[in-house]
């Protein structure tokens, strides 16, 4: 193992000074967005033209895959339009960079969410996770099973609701110097809660393939796997590594508070994200983020191993992968509008029971 000198190995000041961090959309780019929303309001069949914005989004895609792995665009006029129109145009803009993937919150763990399978409305329905409802719980640094996570802030809470980002590669470099034996252990598979197989899968936190670093991180799912009969036990180094990741991330990351109109995107293969809890209120302080997850057209190839194929459904570069049930008969970029198979329902039911029963034990 060796230290990695890559653009995505940033510390806070390097991210904050990068080209597409706090990038203010230009008047021309904003005019293209507003024209597209106007077309929706008037039911016009006129084609939307994003000539200038497409050039910017092409550079954003490059920054996400081969640069810092995180961008923050500012100035989308969210206060002028309905949530539905915003969601539609927002999804269209994401499609300029990649293929939207159906989300894990789309149709199985909250019957009351306002959602489609490709745009999720992230808002608090309860003060703590219960009965599958969305909560205002804080989340530790983690990744989601999507290439890119995209969040558009429509409303922000009056108190709380901050996000935190940290470079996975910087954390790796720091751990390699201070705890090399633990860093090495995180390249080995550890048990994760999984919605198939035996209810668990062995998956590495870190992997390097074709010179590119890729990561999946959860403080919860490895520990939840310990509630599944037959799952291997986490080693002491696994446990120490999971804790050390969070500790280092709190030192080298950056905390931000999204404002209405902010558009945040992170590459899950190289950047961890977290959030703080917030006070639930109604009206203008009813915190609402629109989430789209997508596989970029320029995404990396993932390791050709059975483990990665089971976790992602596909490992080919530029292809749709990840998301909710990536191994379903329909590819991840298509909506599931029919009942799940008996096998899928069985494993998903077991997965959810362990997830909710064990949640309080892993906070």
Description:
The chain has 363 residues and is of the alpha+beta class. The chain has one domain (12-362): Double-stranded beta-helix. 32% of the residues lie in helices and 20% in strands. Strands 1, 2, 3, 4, 6, 13 and 15 form a 7-stranded mixed β-sheet that branches. It has a 4-stranded antiparallel β-sheet with strand order 5-14-7-12. Strands 8-9 form a two-stranded antiparallel sheet. A hairpin with a 6-residue loop joins strand 8 and strand 9. The longest helix has 21 residues, at 342-362. It is globular, with a radius of gyration of 20 Å.
How would you describe this structure in keywords?
363 residues, 32% helix, seven-stranded mixed beta sheet, 10 helices, alpha+beta, Double-stranded beta-helix, four-stranded antiparallel beta sheet
Net shape: globular
**How many domain modules?**
1
- Would you identify the CATH architecture? 4-Layer Sandwich
Strand proportion, as a percent range, falls in 15-25%
CATH class: Alpha Beta
Elements, N to C (H/E): HEHHEHEEEEEHHEEEEHHEEEEHH
Q: Kindly state the number of beta strands.
A: 15
Q: How confident overall, as mean pLDDT? A: 91
The multimeric state of the shown protein is single chain
What low-confidence regions span 5 or more consecutive residues with pLDDT below 50? Answer: 109-115
Residue share in helix: 25-40%
Query: What's the CATH topology label?
Result: Double-stranded beta-helix
Rg over CA atoms: 20 Å
Layout of SSEs?
Blueprint: H1 12-16, E1 21-24, H2 27-41, H3 51-66, E2 70-74, H4 83-95, E3 98-100, E4 120-122, E5 139-142, E6 148-155, E7 163-167, H5 168-178, H6 180-185, E8 189-193, E9 200-204, E10 206-209, E11 212-215, H7 221-224, H8 236-252, E12 254-256, E13 263-267, E14 271-275, E15 288-296, H9 306-312, H10 342-362
Parallel strand pairs: 1-2
Antiparallel strand pairs: 2-13, 3-15, 4-15, 5-14, 6-13, 6-15, 7-12, 7-14, 8-9, 10-11
Helix pairs in contact: 2-4, 5-8
């Amino acid at each position: 193992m060796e230290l990695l000198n890559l653009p995505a190995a940033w510390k806070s000041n390097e991210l904050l000074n990068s080209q597409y961090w706090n990038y203010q959309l230009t008047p021309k780019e904003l005019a293209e967005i507003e024209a597209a929303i106007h077309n929706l309001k008037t039911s016009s069949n006129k084609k939307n033209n994003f000539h200038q914005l497409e050039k910017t989004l092409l550079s954003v895609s490059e920054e996400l895959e081969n640069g810092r792995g995180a961008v923050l665009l500012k100035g989308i006029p969210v206060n002028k339009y309905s949530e539905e129109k915003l969601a539609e145009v927002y999804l269209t803009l994401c499609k300029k960079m990649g293929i939207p993937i159906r989300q894990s919150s789309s149709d199985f763990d909250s019957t009351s969410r306002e959602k489609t399978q490709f745009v999720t409305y992230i808002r608090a329905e309860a003060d703590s996770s219960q009965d599958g409802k969305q909560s205002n719980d804080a989340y530790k640094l983690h990744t989601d099973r999507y290439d890119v996570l995209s969040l558009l802030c429509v409303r922000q809470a009056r108190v709380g609701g901050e996000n935190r980002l940290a470079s996975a590669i910087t954390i790796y470099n720091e751990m390699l110097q201070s705890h090399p034996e633990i860093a090495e252990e995180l390249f080995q598979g550890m048990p994760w809660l999984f919605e198939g197989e035996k209810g668990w899968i062995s998956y590495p936190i870190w992997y390097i393939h074709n010179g590119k670093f890729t990561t999946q991180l959860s403080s919860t799912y490895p520990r939840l796997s310990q509630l599944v009969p037959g799952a291997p036990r986490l080693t002491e180094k696994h446990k120490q590594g999971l804790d050390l990741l969070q500790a280092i991330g709190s030192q080298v990351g950056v905390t931000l508070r999204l404002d209405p109109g902010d558009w945040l995107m992170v590459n899950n293969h190289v950047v961890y994200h977290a959030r703080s809890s917030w006070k639930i209120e109604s009206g203008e302080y009813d915190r609402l983020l629109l989430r789209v997850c997508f596989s970029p057209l320029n995404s990396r190839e993932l390791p050709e191993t059975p483990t990665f194929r089971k976790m992602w459904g596909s490992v080919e570069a530029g292809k749709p992968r990840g998301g909710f049930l990536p191994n379903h008969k329909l590819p991840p970029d298509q909506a599931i509008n029919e009942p799940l198979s008996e096998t899928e329902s069985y494993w998903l039911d077991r997965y959810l029971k362990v997830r909710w029963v064990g949640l309080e034990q892993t906070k």
